[in-house]
Amino acid sequence: MQPHTLGIDLGGTKIEARVFDADWQEIARHRVPTPKDYAQLVDAVADQIAWATQQGAEIAAVGVGAAGLVNPRTGLTLTNNLPASGRPFPADLEKRAGRKITFLNDCRALALSEAVFGAGQVKSVVMALILGTGVSGGLIVNQTWRAGPTATGGEIGHTAAPAHIITAYGLPVYDCGCGRKGCIEAYISGPGLQRLATFVTGAELTTHEIAVLRATDMAGVWALWCALVAELIHSLTLTVDPDVVVLGGGLSAIAHMIPDLQAAAAHAQIAGFDAVPLALAQGGDASGARGAAYAAWMEHRNSAGDQA
């Protein structure tokens, strides 16, 4: 029997383990709640790995896509959604599980999955933009994920918001959870969209309510939000010039988002030049686990080649 690959999508509310066969078809999945205690978190993820080893074939590689970052210098985790900040979570988990584990940010895992299996699979350079509770992304070149020396690549939500739009609307310069001020995430994440609605109209609405009213009462708020997102897309285009920007995260489920953002991106682009194409992520809630599994498989394959 061909070895299988395990991908784990580790988020603030659930730990989703998915086992993939040699053709990247999902053959088993198992979900448990995310504990609020660090030791219990390590145990819960290790138990998911143990569960996968009981599914009938060898698990050749294990990948974990987790919300947050791992400092490559210290090995310590930085995360707002897991009880692991300031702790050596990767090392502790490997020790507890007794095997090598590939770690990557969950947004980078989604980007890799979409580049290999989803909306970007026929493209050479794929940028993912995740719009949800936070804002992040990932850059995949020739279906390969690269971890840079700082491990912060893809944290595009913590680039600066565009000054000309902030000034034109008189928007406050918000504090960001990263410790900086004026990050674009504070304006275009889910909470950021709600913040814009309250500032512009005085109404306190959910993102769903704003989406429903985006052509009527919230039209001005929606146009402002699209303009801000388009400026981020413009910056990514000028920096990377990707073949496609794949949109994921909870806000990407808003109907007709792509046409609205594509028009805003065209307006933000340098006059006379095309805007980058936008596409919706295709993998749904499977993307994070599948991307983590694929990253682990690539690392395992490369390691085996080096030892040959």
Automatic annotation (TrEMBL):
Signal peptide: none annotated. Pfam families: ROK (PF00480). SUPFAM superfamilies: Actin-like ATPase domain (SSF53067). InterPro entries: ATPase_NBD, ROK. It comes from the Bacteria. PANTHER family: BIFUNCTIONAL UDP-N-ACETYLGLUCOSAMINE 2-EPIMERASE_N-ACETYLMANNOSAMINE KINASE (PTHR18964:SF149), ROK (REPRESSOR, ORF, KINASE) FAMILY (PTHR18964). Belongs to the ROK (NagC/XylR) family. This is ROK family protein. The lineage of its organism: Bacteria, Pseudomonadati, Pseudomonadota, Alphaproteobacteria, Rhodobacterales.
